[in-house]
Amino acid sequence: MEKRKYYQEEIETMPLEQLQKLQSEKLVKQVKHVYENLPYYRGLMEKKGVTPDDIHGIEDLYKLPFIEKSDLRECYPDGMRAMPLSECVRIQSTSGTTGKRVIAYYTQQDIDLWEDCCARAIIAAGADKEDVVQVSYGYGLFTGGPGLNGGSHKVGSLTLPMSSGNTERQLQFMLDMKATVLCCTPSYAAYLGESLKEQGYTPDQIPLKAGIFGAEPWTQEMRRSIEQTLGIKAYDIYGLTELSGPGVSFECSEQNGMHINEDHFIAEIINPDTGEVLPEGEKGELVFTALDKQAFPVLRYRTRDICVLSRKKCSCGRTHIRMAKPMGRSDDMMIIRGVNVFPSQIEAVLLAEGFSENYLIKLGRENNSDTFDVYVELRPEQFDDSVKNITAMEKSLAGAMRNMIGIGPAVHLVPPKTIQRSEGKAKRVIDERKLHD
Ligand code: DLL
């Protein structure tokens, strides 16, 4: 049987004019839905002097106000829910934050459309019903596991709901169940590859043929290295909790940029300082408008991801616009082992635990995995403590940070006045990972 090239051919290859007409119709409806059901966003529109009557199609998109992560957090826990609770069937949430997390709500239709997006990505990676898809993204509040799990079901592949971690078991299932597609973060894929190599497996003894990797930045070099060790083709996938999760965009056989699912999302690139919309091909911040989301419908959401879009024709036949690999962020969010972490969260723990605000975060790479070190200056009165006490304090501080952000750093307490003071903006993070091309 010949393999399917697309999951939803008619939509994925829709001529641009028709696609934009569809977006315009959906946008007009969606703005009404948001205006009527989200007092917070209605307030932002009123402030800008815009009503749904001003929005006739995508040409009017620029009139709408932006929405940002801080707005969503302010709306915690349900100020951004636009459907009655009785219609909502699931929440997911962003990683690495406590207290005011972003809580994303889903109706059954929201989940259905999200899973379609993931199914498109799986088919684009060359998989089909005959395949065995090992999902090694985390399951739970994180969107990676649930999203690709649902997509794999839609395709009809045998799904291995592994979740992340427990490497021995991952490898055993991969080999025994003959998994052909691996879905996980690129760093975990590299780690699994290395473990197989160490155990003496050569690429031709590994059943995998494709990987769908995302949730964190990774370079072309890393792609080549994973492809060689595992003997696969490695595809990029992008998404964020605020827009459902993975599958906002995905790579096709060209492996040259990710097609954005434009029937569900309008993408814009803006100048992050002025908010001005930039023409196609220019580098700036990626902004998304969700056209179909019912329960958590964000309009003009500022992702903070710096990116470039291209409408160049793609030989795969898909007409949807492509985004390059994100080239960095316009805020200070770090992605450490797949978890989103802000320096302000580290600072909050330090102050809550009675430490000084003089600290330094150092990120590096070892064996394709992130290293995460936090150096914290002791207050003079703490410095008199014995080495035993210091070690205990380091341990307890690392535990408090793990509780707050979900992953634990190696904490190093250093003598007072040893962390360099800055005269301008404090430089709190040294990132030596070189994750962007
Ligand atoms: O990371 C959703 C996801 C799960 C995507 C599995 C792909 C695969 P969040 O935890 O909300 O959602 O983090 C979203 O992660 O704004 C980007 O900065 C970053 N990111 C996601 N995918 C990629 C990628 C999920 N392929 C944030 N390349 C986004 C680079 C990515 N960065």
Description:
The chain has 437 residues and is α/β, with parallel strands linked by helices. 32% of the residues lie in helices and 23% in strands. A 9-stranded mixed beta sheet has the order 4-3-5-6-7-8-9-14-13. Strands 19-18-17-20 form a 4-stranded mixed beta sheet. A 3-stranded antiparallel beta sheet has the order 10-11-12, with no helix packed on it. Strand 6, helix 9 and strand 7 (233-240) form a beta-alpha-beta unit. Helix 2 (16-37) crosses helix 3, helix 5 packs across helix 6 (144-155) and helix 8 packs parallel to helix 9. The model has no long low-confidence stretch (mean pLDDT 93). It binds 5'-O-[hydroxy(phenylacetyl)phosphoryl]adenosine (DLL). 5'-O-[hydroxy(phenylacetyl)phosphoryl]adenosine binds next to strand 7, strand 8 and strand 12.
Write the layout of secondary structure elements.
Blueprint: H1 9-12, H2 16-37, H3 39-48, H4 69-74, E1 88-93, E2 103-107, H5 108-124, E3 132-135, H6 144-155, E4 158-161, H7 167-176, E5 181-184, H8 186-198, E6 210-214, H9 220-230, E7 233-240, E8 245-251, E9 258-260, E10 265-270, E11 284-290, E12 301-307, E13 309-310, E14 322-323, E15 334-336, E16 339-341, H10 343-352, E17 359-366, E18 369-377, H11 380-383, H12 387-405, E19 410-414, E20 429-431
Parallel strand pairs: 3-4, 3-5, 5-6, 6-7, 17-20, 18-19
Antiparallel strand pairs: 1-2, 7-8, 8-9, 9-14, 10-11, 11-12, 13-14, 15-16, 17-18
The structure holds 5'-O-[hydroxy(phenylacetyl)phosphoryl]adenosine.
Give a concise summary.
The protein is α/β, with parallel strands linked by helices and 437 residues long. Helix content is 32%, strand content 23%. The protein has twelve helices and 20 strands.
